[in-house]
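input
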Amino acid sequence: MKLRITPIFGLAACLAWAGLQSTCDAGEPAPNAAAAPDKIDFVSQIEPLLTRFGCNAGGCHGKASGQNGFKLSLFGFDSDFDYEAIVEEARGRRVFGTAAPSSLFILKAAGKVPHGGGRRIEPGTEAYDTLCSWIAQGAPASAPDAPRVTKIEIEPRELIMQRGGRQTLKVIAHYTNGTKRDVTAQAQYDSNMGPVAAVSPEGLVECGTQSGEAAIMARYMGQVAVFRALVPHGASLTSLPNFQAETAIDKLCAEKWKKLGLTPSSPADDATFIRRVTIDLCGRLPTPEEVRAYLSETSGAKRTRLVDRLLASPDYPAFFAMRWGTILRNSQLAGADRAAYAFHNWIKDMLARNRPYDEFVRGVVAAAGEWQDAPAINWYWQMRDDQLHQVTADTAQVFLGIRLQCARCHHHPYERWGQEDYYGLAGFFTRLGRKSFGEPPPYFSAPRVTMGEQNPLTKKSPEPKYLDGEYAKFSSEEDPRHGLVDWMVRPENPFFSRVLVNRLWGHFFGRGLVDQVDDMRETNPPSNPELLDALAKDFVEHRFDMKYMIRQMVLSQAYGLSAVPTPQNQSDTQNFARFYSRRLIAEVLHDAVDQATGAKSQFSGMAAEARAVDLPHEGFGSYFLETFDRPKRVTGCECERSAGATLAQVLLLSNSDEIENKLAHADGRPARLVKSQQTDADAVDELYLAALSRWPTPAEKTKSIAYLAAGANRQQALEDILWSLLNSKEFLFNH
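output
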């Protein structure tokens, strides 16, 4: 056993003898045993202060290289390392037991000697006295059997507050010996929505002038708890006269709206709905013929029939295969073009046959064999450079909604996950093997020998451990990955079904109930927890039927709301009291331009009718797709696809040869309208139906007909009208 010897004299003592001790405030001796009889524990009382005052943050001594020769573990997750750094490192020069306030550790923190971080702690405060008392007691290390924090609670957990309102939080720590302790003053606080509700270092929540919801995180000793501040948009409502909730989705949305004083927008009209749902389900615009037929239909069940028809069409699996291919990083970067095609087709086939989601995930996570027989093995090949760590991080993020990458090196700063959890999940993949010959991607299997990776905590190969659970044991004949999937798909699993329904909700509603859709942590709570729980439960009860869940969402009244805000919901960005307009993604916008102009782009090696959403990987060259930020498929995060606008995008649509050539194409829509000799009124109708999926308004029609009549070149005039529609916000957005 290593003996810890607390130094009495060091550099701090020399500084004191040199006269620097006089920099301490008069009457500021180290608290003696009579003043502080209780022994101060390093882990539970000193370590939290280092975190609260930012000493062990990533920008200070907690960064990988430390700061000015002094290094602490990030956010204090390695207390043994921190104790040695403070007390024993550098010959003990940082503490001075006989004159605690003169310790270099105290002088630096109090700003009494030069310190790059400035003054972090005020003399005379409780925190300052605690540090001095600990040093005066001999700077003892924590006893091995000292109680440890198991969880923290925050009071209150949720509160409806008013603009300008204030609320003091209380944080209670629970320890392994069954005791509780008020740690409000030692906890660290942060808000995810400062304009709605900010929080002070002391835990005082103050609401601003903006309505909405804010999650206030309290962190203490690796544990987190969240307080939710709800600032209503108006007075609470008892009913919503214009919204008759019938489904579970609509009822739970309505309850939240009433609580927040939100009045939903009116329902979207039929033209808006067919365009919206066709884009969301099939990644394309409805054809003019589809729009005409749908708008002329008078049946009350027309929306249900439309959704069923779209889900049964080949466009649905093609579009969602592209979305899943992006998330699963089915890329040409692997150098195995045929394997990428095979993986894409496998995904599309699984969606077309509506195979249960748990079967789909098992096919990916537990894939083994040659790509010809098991195309999903390509998922592993994409991550070959750092296979174990990439597959661990992607499995957690894509299928469990947990961003576990941080825990590879240190405890997650905003969650409960640590290195034990990370390497426990990695343990399910250590038996993966590959051949080093033949056509890539190579054969993957689960051999009896491991890959040689080590858990830095144990210096051994990582052992399988379920998140929030126990270590798992597998025989040499078993593939641990199947055990992992078995655990994932358990009905009681708190991650698996929630992340899928949240991902689908984000796709259809423009924002996840948890935003970002694959960052589901306690410190990033859902805007409607009851709704997320209900959707996840329903998904499990219907045996992970993805089409069933999609129908529930797109046939809800909430999805069918207009995107036009009302004065009551204009500031709402979290609760779906209106439809959130969003830009068309690169592939869909590309195909929409092709469809509206009637000029089809051709992709090398693909069938003539292939759309951008049919492409199996990102390796097909297209300036349009690159300009509109087609993902490069180098990460499994949805965030790789940006929604931001650029000048290059504006110029491409408004002034590029590509768009000009499509408009003027000999077989394009304007040219065909001229050849068909349709009337000006009919031609204008056709352009609006093709581009915007609606009839032109009387004013739009009158102005367009007048423009055609005044033009010397009828085709050029039709091109001009279509050009103006392609550059309109109505065309560029799904609304």
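quick obs: The first strand starts at residue 149 and ends at 155.
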